[in-house]
Design goal:
EC number (chains B, D): 1.2.4.4
Helix content of chain B: 40-55%
Keywords (chains B, D): Oxidoreductase, Thiamine pyrophosphate
Oligomer: heterotetramer
Bound molecules: thiamine diphosphate, magnesium ion
InterPro entries (chains B, D): Alpha-ketoacid_DH_E1_comp (IPR050771), DH_E1 (IPR001017), THDP-binding (IPR029061)
Strand content of chain A: 15-25%
Low-confidence stretches of chain B: 1-12
Strand order of the largest sheet of chain B: 2-8-9-5-4-3
Mean pLDDT of chain A: 98
CATH topology of the largest domain in chain B: Rossmann fold
CATH architecture of the largest domain in chain A: 3-Layer(aba) Sandwich
Pfam families (chains B, D): E1_dh
Largest interface: B-D, 76 and 76 residues
Protein name (chains B, D): 2-oxoisovalerate dehydrogenase subunit alpha
Number of domains of chain A: 2
C-alpha cells in the first residue's frame, strides 16, 4: 500500500501496463515529454521511449482515429483527450467507428484493445469548456464501455481492468479530484470489475446513486440526512455502460426510494436512463418518485457555478422530499 | 529514381532560413508543378524510356484476370440489382486499375484499408466469389454476418479491413495501423484508399498529418475519379488535385494516370519500398473517372452529359492492359473470349447459390456488440425469441430456427 | 391544398423561405444542381442561383461550421447533412458551438437563424450507417431545439417554424416516409408550433408516445389494441427539445399508463428521459410501469432488421403488458 | 505587387494537362519555396527597397499605444493571477504584433474571429479597460455575463466575435461569416486567427477548403509561435510551416515575420484588398515565438530551455516598433516613460474597481440558453431561488439579491 493521489494512481496503472505489454502506447496532446497537462503520463516517455509515449498533433479526431487503427492492428492504444469538453471532434470516430468495429465486421476485426482516458467534470471554475461531464452522450452507444472512478484506489483498479478489457472503453477521470483525492493504493497489480456497481454504504430508507466525483457530494448529503435519522444506501455505479441494473434494483427494492445525482445537465442525462429502468424494475416497490439531482439544463457557467451544480444541499433537500413524499 | 533519394528533413526553423523578401510575395496553387506518371499508352505500347514495374507473365495474367473478374462482377451485380435480387451495388467501371494495381504492388501481409470502390484489391487478394456473394446477399455465410449493406466486404485472413460507410474514417486509422506495424517491426505497410471527395473530410487532414509526424509506413492512395456522387471535383476543391496537399504535409507524393495499370503498379511498388525503408508515408493520386453511376441508387444523367462520359470510355484501363498483354504475346483473343464466358457463368451461378442461403440466425443480432454478450442484451434476445415464437409469420427469416 | 409527399412538402417550405428571405441559403453535399440525394432541394439552385443553393465539399464539420458562421453573421443558413448517420463529424460544431453560441457570449452573438436538416431512421435496409436515429445524442444539449415531423403537413409547417425560430434547430426528416407519406398540404405559408406535442387520437386506457416515422407503427399497434377493446391516446411529441411535458403528463394523469416507442436503441434514448420525467410528474397516477419499446441495444443491423426494430407487434404486446400489469 | 495579379483559375482537368513523366517523380515538402516578408529591422530601420504599409504618425501612434497597453495588461494580469485576484490569464508576450498589426490592417466593419491570444486586436479596436476587466472578473458588467473563463472576450459592437475555447471551430465559421458578408454585398472581410497547433484540427481543413471553393473573403491569419502548450511545432507538423498548405487549397498565401509590425500591417492590408477585390481567401502565416508560458496554469521550464527563450527576447516586436518610432521622430523616451507609467496605474486601478463589482444575478443562469427562457428552465430557476433562500450562506454571490 502507498499513499497516492488520483493522478498518481492513474500514472501507476499506466506504468504497470506499459511495463508488461510491449504493444501498449500512451499518446495525446502534450502527453509525451511533458507528461500531459495534468501530468498523468509523467515519466512514461523517459521510461518507455518516444515511440510508445508521445505528443500527437492537436487533432482529437486524429488521435482517436489513429488509436482505432492501432487497436485493430493488435496494439494496445491508451489515448488521452486533454479535456472531456474536447472529445466531440472525435465523436464520429468513437460512436460510428470504435463502437461498431466488431459488430459491422462480424468480428473479423475489433478495437477491443482501445482505451480513451479523459478528465471530466466541474467545480474548478472552468466554465463552459473545462467542466463538462459528457458521459451520457456516449451512453446511447452499444459497443462502448464507459467507466468512471471516484478515488485513487478505483482509478488504478478500474483503469487496469479497462485497458485489459477486450472492448473499447471511455474512461472518465474526475479532474477535480486529481490531486484532492488521496488514499491508500496497493502498489501491486490489481483490477476492479467492470460492469459492477459498488455499495459504499448500506442503508434502509433511500438509495443514493452517483458516479465519479459526485459521490463525495452525495456522501456529504447522506451525512446531513443521517443527522435527521435518515438511513441512506450509497451506490457508486462505477461503470455507466453496460451498467449494473441488478445491484441498483435490489437496493431500491429494499429501500423503496431512489435518488440519482449527476454533474451533467438533467435532460437526457444518464440519470434519466437509470430512472426509466428502475421505475420499471421496481415499480411496486417505489414509495416515491425517483429523484434526479443534476446540473441545470444550461451550458456550464462560470460565476454562477455554485448555483448551477448539484451540490450536497440540493441533494439533501431531494432526500427529504423523497422521504416525506 | 528521382525524388526518392533519402530526403533531408524539412527544416522547421523557417524563421531564420527562408528567402527574405521586402514586398508582399504570395504562393498559391500554381507554386508547385505536379508531373503525372504514365507508362502504358492506350494502344498497349510502352512510352519510350519508361521505367517498368516488376511484373512477369504470371503476375500480369493474375492482374489481368482480376480486372476481368471485377468488370464482369460489376456488370452482373448491377443487373442483379435491377432485377431486385440484391438491394444495392457499387461498380468501379473505368477505374478498376487503381484497386487491382494497388493490391498487385503490395505484399499479402500489407493491410488494405479501402473506401468502398476497391473490390478490385480484394479480388486480387483472392477473396472467393462465394464470399463476395455471401456478403452481398447478407446471408448466414457472410463473414460480416449480414450486418452491413452490400459491398461492405472485409477479411481478416486477407488483411482487407471491413469497409465502413462513414467517409474518411479509415484515413487516420490507417496511420495508426501502419504505426503499429512499424512498432512491431513488421515487414508490412498499410495502403489506405479514398476518393477525392472523402479527402475533404477532417479525418483526411488528421490522418495525413499524423502519419507524417509519426512516420507511419502508409500509402495514401487517392482515387481521383472526378466525382463525389453528383459533385464534380471542381466544386470539391480548387487546388491542384489532392497531390498538391502533399507539399503541406511534407509527404512524398506522386500523381499517376490511374487508368494505366503499369503506372499504378510502378507507383505502388516504389511507394511500398520507400514507406518501408524510410518508415514514412507516401501519397499516390491516381487520376481517373467514375464511368458508371455512383451506386445503383444514383442516375448520373441528372448531373453530367453523355458526351463527357463518352470521352472517358477511350481510357478504359482494362482494354489498355489487354492491348499490352496481346503485344507481349502473354494473352490472345481465344483466351479472352473463354475467360469472359467462364466468368459470366460463374458469377451467375454464384448469385443463384448465395440468394438461397439462409439469413443469419437471430442470435447474431446481439453477438459482437461486445466481446461477450452482456446480460442486458441476453435479456433483450430472450424476450425477442419468445415474441417471435408468438408471431412467427412476422419474422420469416428467423422464426423457423428458434429453439 | 395540394397532394404532396414529405419530400415535396420540405421542398415547398424551402422554396417559400428562399423566396421571402434573401439571406436564406440551402447547402450541403450534392444539394446544389442535383437537388440532394433525396431531391429535397430540387429546383432551388435553378430558382435562386448558385450563390444561395450549392454543393459543399464533403465535410460535415465544415458544413455546420460554415453554417454557424453564416448564422452569426445574420444570414439564414439551412444546412443539409446527407444522412443523420453522418452528422457525427459535425457533433462538436453543433454541441459545443451552435448550442452554446448565445450563452457563452451573453447574447452578444447568436446562431439562432441556423437550421440543420437531416434524413434519419431505418426500415429501408440501410444497415448500420443509413438507418440511425440519433436524436437522443443531441437531446442532452441545452441550447438546441430538435424537431421531427411525421407527415407532409407537419414537415412543411414545422420546417417553416424551425427556420424562422430564433434558435438553432436540428430537424430530423423520416426518410422512410419521404415518398411513402403523402397527404393534403396547404399551398400557402403556415407554421406549426415548436415545443408543442400533438394529440393525434384521444383515448382512456393508455398513452402512446412517439415521434416521426414511429407514429405510423404506433397507430398500427393502437388499432390492433382497439380490437381488444383497449382505448389508446396517441401523442406525437413533434419537438424533442425542449419537449412538451405538460401535454404528456396531462394525458398520463388521465390514462394512468404510458408507453414510449422510439426507433433508436433503448439505453439512454430519449424515451428514457420521458419515462424519468413522467414517473416523477405522474407518480401517483401511474397504474403500471412506463413501457419503452425501442430498438435493440446494438448497432442497426441489416438482415435482422425486422427482428431489431420496435415494430407494431412489439408495441402491441407492450400495451397489453401495461394494461394487464 | 508580385503574386497579386488576378490569377488564372486552377485547371482541374489536370489529367490531360500536367507534364507527363515516365519514371516515378515525387514532390514533397521541399517542392515549394516560401519567402518571408520582412520590412522592419530590429534596429528600427527599414530594409532598403521595402514596400511600406499605409501608415502615418497618427496611426503609428495608435498602433504603438495598443502594443504598450497590451504588454502592460499582460504583465499586470499575470501578476494579478499570482496574487489570486483573477483565476486565469493568457499573455501574448513577444507576439503582440500579430494581433495588433492584424487589426490595424483592417477596417472597423471587418469581423475578427480570434483564437484567444489576440486581445491585441480587441485593444486596437478600442475595447475599454473596464470591459476587459469586467470579463476577467466575470462580474455582472461583463458583456459575456460572467459565463466564460477569463480572456474569453467578445463584442458585437466592435465586430469581435466572442472567444470560444474549443480550438479551430472558428475557422469554418469564419469562412461562413465571410461568405455571408460577400452575399450581402458588404464592404467587409473576416479575419480568422489561429495558432499553428489549432491548424492541425479537422476544422482547419474544412474551413480553408470551403473558403477556397466558395470564394469567401476571409483572411486566415496563422500565428505560428512555435508551441502548442508543450508541443513544439516540429511535433505538430513536418511540412514547411502552415503556409505550405496554401498550395494544396489553391489559396494565395504569404509568410511574414510576425514580430515585424510593418510586415504584419502590409500583409494584412494587401490581403484585405485582395480578398475584397477577388472575393477569395488569403492565408498569412506570421512567424513568431510564444515567449511566455502558455497560460498562467503552465510552466514552460518543463519542456524548453531558458536559452531558447533568451534568443527570442531579441526579437521583441514592441521594441522594434519603438526603435522605428524613435527613428521617425514620432515618439520619444519621455513619452515612453509617461505612457508606461500611466498604463500601469490605469490597469491597477481598473483591477481594483472590477474585482469589487457584483457577480451576475441568479437569473443570468438561465437566460440566453434560448432566445427566451423556456418553461423547464424557468421552473428550474424558480426552484433554485426557493432553495437559495433556504441556504443563503451557501450561495453568497446571489443570495442577497433574490427577490
Ligand atoms: C461521412 C460521410 N458523409 C457522407 C457520405 C455519403 N456519401 C457516400 S459516397 C459519397 C461520395 C464520395 O465521393 P468520393 O470520395 O470521391 O468517392 P467515389 O464515390 O468517387 O469513389 C458520399 C457523399 C458518407 N458515406 N459518409
Ligand atoms: C479542441 C481543443 N483541444 C484541445 C484544447 C486545449 N488547448 C488549449 S490551447 C492549446 C494549444 C494551442 O496551441 P496553438 O494553436 O499553437 O496556439 P498558441 O497557444 O500557441 O497561441 C490546447 C491543446 C482546446 N482548447 N480545444
Ligand atoms: Mg470521387
Ligand atoms: Mg502555437
Amino acid at each position: 500500500m502507498a499513499q497516492m493521489n488520483l493522478l498518481q494512481a492513474i500514472n501507476n496503472a499506466l506504468d504497470i501496463v506499459m511495463a508488461e505489454n510491449d504493444s501498449a502506447l500512451c499518446f495525446g496532446e502534450d502527453v509525451g515529454h511533458f507528461g500531459g497537462v495534468f501530468r498523468a503520463t509523467s515519466g512514461l516517455q523517459e521510461k518507455y521511449g518516444k515511440a510508445r509515449c508521445f505528443n500527437t498533433p492537436l487533432v482529437e479526431q486524429g488521435i482517436i482515429g489513429f488509436a482505432n487503427g492501432l487497436a485493430a492492428q493488435g496494439s494496445t492504444p491508451i489515448a488521452e483527450i486533454q479535456f472531456a469538453d474536447y472529445i466531440f471532434p472525435a465523436f464520429d470516430q468513437i460512436v460510428n467507428e470504435s463502437a461498431k468495429f466488431r459488430y459491422r465486421s462480424g468480428n473479423e476485426f475489433n478495437v477491443g484493445k482501445l482505451t480513451i482516458r479523459t478528465p471530466y467534470g466541474g467545480g474548478i471554475a472552468g466554465g463552459l469548456y473545462h467542466s463538462q461531464s459528457p458521459e451520457a452522450y456516449f451512453a446511447h452507444t452499444p459497443g462502448l464501455k464507459i467507466v468512471v472512478p471516484r478515488n485513487p484506489y478505483q482509478a488504478k483498479g478500474l483503469l487496469l481492468a479497462s485497458i485489459r478489457d477486450d472492448n473499447p472503453v471511455v474512461f472518465f477521470e474526475p479532474k477535480r479530484l486529481y490531486r484532492a483525492s488521496v488514499g491508500e493504493v496497493p502498489v501491486e497489480d490489481y483490477q476492479l470489475p467492470l460492469g459492477k456497481a459498488d455499495i459504499m454504504q448500506t442503508g434502509t430508507d433511500i438509495t443514493l446513486l452517483a458516479w465519479g466525483a459526485q459521490l463525495e457530494i452525495v456522501e456529504k448529503a447522506a451525512d446531513k440526512a443521517s443527522a435527521d435519522g435518515i438511513s441512506c444506501e450509497i451506490i457508486d455505479l462505477r461503470t455507466i455502460l453496460p451498467w449494473d441494473v441488478d445491484t441498483v434494483a435490489n437496493s431500491v427494492r429494499k429501500t423503496g426510494r431512489l435518488l440519482v445525482s449527476q454533474e451533467a445537465p438533467l435532460t437526457a442525462g444518464f440519470a434519466s436512463e437509470i430512472a426509466a429502468t428502475i421505475q420499471q424494475e421496481c415499480f411496486l416497490h417505489l414509495e416515491s418518485p425517483i429523484e434526479r439531482v443534476c446540473g441545470f439544463d444550461t451550458p456550464y457557467p462560470l460565476s454562477l457555478e455554485k448555483e448551477y451544480v448539484a451540490d450536497h444541499l440540493k441533494i439533501y433537500e431531494a432526500i427529504k422530499r423523497s422521504i416525506n413524499y | 529514381m528521382q525524388g526518392l533519394q533519402q530526403e533531408k528533413a524539412m527544416n522547421t526553423e523557417i524563421y531564420k532560413e527562408s528567402q527574405v523578401v521586402h514586398t508582399p510575395t504570395f504562393i498559391d496553387g500554381h507554386s508547385v508543378e505536379i508531373p503525372i506518371l504514365k507508362i502504358l499508352k492506350e494502344d498497349g505500347t510502352v512510352y519510350s524510356g519508361a521505367e517498368l514495374p516488376e511484373i512477369d507473365q504470371v503476375k500480369a495474367t493474375k492482374v489481368y484476370k482480376a480486372l476481368a473478374f471485377h468488370r464482369v462482377l460489376d456488370e452482373r451485380m448491377v443487373a442483379a440489382q435491377r432485377q431486385g435480387r440484391v438491394s444495392f451495388y457499387m461498380a468501379a467501371l473505368g477505374e478498376e486499375a487503381a484497386s487491382v494495381g494497388g493490391a498487385a504492388g503490395l505484399e499479402d501481409q500489407d493491410m488494405i484499408m479501402a473506401q468502398y470502390r476497391e473490390q478490385g484489391a480484394l479480388i486480387y487478394r483472392g477473396f472467393s466469389l462465394e464470399n463476395l456473394m455471401n456478403q452481398m446477399f447478407s446471408n448466414e455465410k457472410d463473414l460480416g454476418k449480414g450486418r452491413q449493406m452490400p459491398i461492405h466486404y472485409g477479411s481478416s485472413e486477407l488483411n482487407y479491413m471491413t469497409i465502413s460507410s462513414p467517409l474518411g474514417t479509415q484515413i487516420p486509422q490507417a496511420a495508426g495501423y501502419a504505426y503499429g506495424q512499424k512498432l512491431q517491426g513488421k515487414d508490412a505497410v498499410t495502403i489506405c484508399y479514398f476518393g477525392e471527395g472523402a479527402a475533404s473530410e477532417g479525418d483526411f487532414h488528421a490522418g495525413l498529418n499524423m502519419a507524417a509526424v509519426h512516420r507511419a509506413p502508409v500509402i495514401f492512395f487517392c482515387r481521383n475519379n472526378g466525382y463525389a456522387i453528383s459533385t464534380p471535383s471542381d466544386e470539391q476543391y480548387v487546388g491542384n488535385g489532392i497531390a498538391s496537399r502533399g507539399v503541406g504535409y511534407g509527404i512524398k507524393t506522386i500523381r499517376i494516370d490511374g487508368n494505366d495499370i503499369l503506372a499504378v503498379l510502378k507507383a505502388t511498388q516504389t511507394a511500398r519500398s520507400y514507406a518501408l525503408a524510410e518508415q514514412k508515408p507516401v501519397i499516390i493520386e491516381a487520376m481517373s473517372y467514375r464511368l458508371g453511376a455512383h451506386s445503383t441508387s444514383d442516375d448520373p444523367s441528372g448531373y453530367r452529359t453523355k458526351e463527357e462520359e463518352e470521352k472517358w470510355h477511350m481510357h478504359d484501363p482494362i482494354l489498355r492492359m489487354k492491348n499490352w498483354m496481346l503485344a507481349q504475346k502473354w494473352w490472345d483473343e481465344t483466351q479472352e473470349t473463354e475467360l469472359y464466358e467462364k466468368l459470366r457463368e460463374q458469377v451467375l451461378a454464384a448469385v443463384k447459390v448465395a440468394e438461397k442461403i439462409d439469413k443469419p440466425p437471430v442470435e447474431d443480432l446481439v453477438t459482437d456488440v461486445y466481446d461477450q454478450v452482456p446480460a442486458h442484451l441476453q435479456k433483450q434476445l430472450d424476450e425477442l425469441k419468445v415474441h417471435i415464437k408468438k408471431y412467427p409469420e412476422a419474422y420469416p427469416f428467423t422464426a423457423g430456427r428458434i429453439k
